Amino acid sequence: MTRRRRAVLLLGLAVLMGTLAASDVSGREAALRRELGAPVPVVVARTRLTPGTRLDAKHLAIRHVPARYAPGAAYASVPALAGARAAAVIAAGADVVPSAVDDGTRAAGAPVRPGERVAELVAPGSPELIRAGSRVDVLVTRERGDGAGTTRLALEDAEVLAARPAGAGEDAGSGAAEGPRVAVALRVTLHQAVYLAAAQSFARELRLLPRAAGDRRHGHTGTAVGSDLS
Question: Residue 153, class by beta-carbon neighbours within 10 Å (0-12 exposed, 13-18 middle, 19+ buried)?
């Protein structure tokens, strides 16, 4: 085989391999788009908003996210919030969800249904994942009589009504672990509110676990493990 023919053959192979690689990448991108869904607009806060702040173009922006990760009750446009005000603290960059919005029709009182309560607590957790409209589980760690610790899943699938990164001076328990902490308001029953209030006094630590969007499975409350993992 002459040098010229060899060069032509190698060039042809390079073109073929490049075409196959490009096709594979394109196929993977298409599959990923199908899995995540088309980007949808979601209204977010430009800066930290306090209760009573008017929700207008000055304070709001639009972010496009895959449909799979968009909050189910999110607003898709700024005009949809015309005349509304913040009903709770909304962190900068956070999604604006109905539970944090006062559109003028909300009755006075907490944003919960009859029989429910709002439980406020500060605990280790991810400020990026735990936001108003998301859902969390709550772990409670307490010391046993022998000095060892026991961690218990105390609350499942609680709706977050409001969330923000906790300040340095906000208490998360005397034995709170290092790392980011979140101040949250949770929608709970009266019994759950009493338990969480007591837990903030007797527990070594409370911890918030963000749940996947759409995961509403229950049945693990009460699951416990000791420091010996038994």
Answer: middle
CA distance 169 to 230: 35
Domain coordinates in residue numbering, the chain: 1-33, 39-102, 116-226
Burial of 171 (0-12, 13-18, 19+ CB in 10 A): exposed
At 214 the three-state DSSP class reads: coil
Q: How far apart are CA 188 and CA 121, in angstroms?
A: 12
d(Cα 180, Cα 124) in Å, to the nearest integer? 6
Domain 39-102 of CATH type 3.30.870.10? no
Q: Say what the pTM is.
A: 0.52
Mean pLDDT of the chain: 80
Cα(150)–Cα(205) distance, integer angstroms: 10
Q: Give every CB contact of residue 85 below 8 A, 6+ residues apart in sequence.
A: 51, 52, 53, 54, 55, 101, 102
Q: Kindly report, residue by residue over 95-153, the tens digit of the pLDDT.
A: 888 888 887 766 556 677 888 899 999 999 999 999 988 999 999 998 766 667 789 89
The predicted structure's pLDDT at residue 230: 47
